[in-house]
């Protein structure tokens, strides 16, 4: 009886260990992941265009980082407000309005950045760029579940796919 139990446990451990060392979907051997949009592979950017876009991206990140941090802190405060029975519905609405205002500011900065990038492109590149924007591929997380928080340590309650 002990032998059957021991061999069964060994089999389970081996099967589990094998799955722990498995590569993520889309990765084979030593191949790196497919180049993404940011690397300019999709648009065929020149070195000069890539340099200018990298500078624009850095400026954009400098402007949006504080806003993103604000959104996160506001969302954390909102979650704490939800579980506090003393907080009124009007205070919850006010907090949601603050979060919405910050998200709107981020969206406008993103649109401004995309327009600046677009202004650096050739006509052929603009067509590809426009197709990506319209289809939603220009946003993070549009890779199915690979880009979703669930793949990176668990989906938070109430989290939505981006």
Highlighted features:
single chain; 162 residues; mainly alpha; 0% strand; flat; disordered C terminus
Principal-axes geometry comes out as: flat
- Structure summary, number of beta strands: 0
Number of helices: 4
Strand content: under 5%
Share of helix, binned: 55-70%
| Secondary-structure element order, N to C | HHHH
| End-to-end CA span | 52 Å
Uncertain ranges = 26-37, 141-162
Note the main sheet: none
How does the helix and strand content classify structurally? mainly alpha
Radius of gyration: 23 Å
Average pLDDT, all residues: 77
Task: Please provide a written account of the structure.
This protein is mainly α and 162 residues long. It is 62% helix and 0% strand. The chain has helices at residues 2-20, 47-83, 89-119, 123-135. Helix 2 (47-83) runs antiparallel to helix 3. The model is unreliable at 26-37 and 141-162 (pLDDT under 50).
Short description:
With 162 residues, this protein is mainly alpha-helical. Helix content is 62%, strand content 0%.
Structural topology:
Elements: H1 2-20, H2 47-83, H3 89-119, H4 123-135
Helix pairs in contact: 2-3
């Amino acid at each position: 009886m002990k032998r059957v139990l021991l061999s069964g446990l060994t089999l389970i451990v081996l099967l589990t260990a094998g799955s722990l060392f498995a590569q993520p979907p889309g990765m084979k051997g030593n191949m790196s992941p497919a180049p993404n949009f940011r690397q300019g592979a999709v648009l065929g950017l020149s070195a000069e265009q890539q340099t200018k876009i990298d500078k624009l991206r850095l400026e954009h990140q400098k402007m949006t980082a504080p806003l993103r941090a604000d959104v996160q802190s506001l969302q954390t405060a909102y979650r704490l407000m939800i579980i506090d029975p003393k907080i009124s519905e009007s205070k919850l609405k006010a907090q949601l309005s603050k979060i919405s205002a910050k998200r709107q500011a981020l969206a406008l900065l993103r649109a401004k950045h995309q327009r600046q990038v677009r202004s650096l492109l050739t006509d052929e590149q603009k067509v590809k760029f426009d197709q990506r924007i319209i289809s939603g591929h220009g946003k993070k997380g549009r890779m199915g579940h690979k880009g979703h928080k669930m793949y990176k340590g668990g989906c938070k309650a109430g989290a939505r796919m981006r």
